[in-house]
Amino acid sequence: MQAEAEARAQQVAAQFVSWYNQQVGVSLLQYARLGRGRRIHILDTTHVEVPLETGTYECSGVVKNEDGTLSRGYKLATLRTLLDSAGLLTQVALSAIQVHDMALCRPLLAEAPVLRAGDLLLEDRGFLDGATVSHLKRQRQVDVIIPLKANMLATQEAMQLAAMADTWEAHPSRAAQRIAWVHGVAHRWPECAVPLNACVIRFWNKKKKCTDHIVLATTDRKLNAPWMVRHYEERPEIEQDDEQMKSGGWQLQKLSSTRYSEIVFYVLTVVLSYSLYHLFANTKRGARFADKTRQALAFEQLRTQRTHVIVYAGGHFELFETLRFVQMVLQLSPPVQERLRTWLGEHLNQIQKRE
Asked: Residue 47 forms beta bridges with which residues?
């Protein structure tokens, strides 16, 4: 019975996720009006944890953390499309927490309608998969920047070629680091079937107390070393945004149901709210919110005691300050006020019955 219930929940959840990816994510980009140029996307995952001892959360899993502790919950994958000052979560995938990042994201990358020819995807080492990098370049004409693992032959090759050429240049944002561009390292990564260039970053590792290296690889053969670094430095800022989504007032972790379909729906509403906020913050009217967290805005609202309401009518909506909206309602004709009073009474009765 439990297996059947979880199978049904998975089907409903898949419909929710498909709706978001095929309809919502595409619409967000249409509103953003990014034009026909290259879009930059960031692929990432984050944990949505629930109490470990509560095994009643449908379709949840358990994973062992690096410190040896166990965590229960889900893994949320997001494809973030960058705007001028923020990013929109245009594609999502959800699974049990123990599922590998690449297993969760591979279908998403294969089908994502927001990825188009010429786009650039920024990944971290958890998504290191030569076959997927090759598919994105060959089948979808999407380029990738990804850091290589230290034990890979391609990494060793890039470091040796950089040392031999000895043409180090300044890091675009960190004065103490040096970078070098290296041509052609894909032959040392057998799983990758497309050409790769690399950027070797040389720095002083304070923990190891020695010179160390990071190697970024890209399928975009037109990118030089400084631009590879500039693009990839978008990732740390986005990781901070993920923390904000979990603990900065968006309440991603605050699940009120153990049913998987309801959990997925809740997560999608948080993701949508987060994206709509950043979409507005990227406009002229919303620019003053661009550098503020939702938590900071909530504190500001409490301090000023100003609240707002969103009013929907037909296919349109508008944001009103609460007192101004009340003033507008009071100016309506008596018949219209009576209709509103009747509708509101019926609506409040329905809410009370549900509670």
From this structure: 75
8 A C-beta contact, residue 220 and residue 120: yes
- The distance in angstroms from the start CA to the end CA of the chain is 28
pTM: 0.81
Is residue 62 a contact partner of residue 50, using CB atoms and an 8 Å limit? no
pLDDT beyond 80 at 155: yes
Residue 169 contacts residue 225 (beta carbons within 8 Å): yes
Find tokens 């999608």 and name the residue.
268
Q: Cα–Cα distance between 125 and 98 in angstroms, integer?
A: 17
355 has pLDDT over 60: no
146, two tokens: 């990804």
Rounded Cα distance between 189 and 217, Å, is: 11
What pLDDT score was predicted for residue 246?
58
The C-alpha atoms of residue 103 and residue 7 are separated, in whole angstroms, by 19
Share of the chain above pLDDT 70, in %: 88
Q: Which residues contact 185 (CB under 8 A, 6 or more apart)?
A: 154, 157, 158, 161, 196, 197, 198, 217
Closest to 105 in 3D by CA, of 132, 73, 87: 132
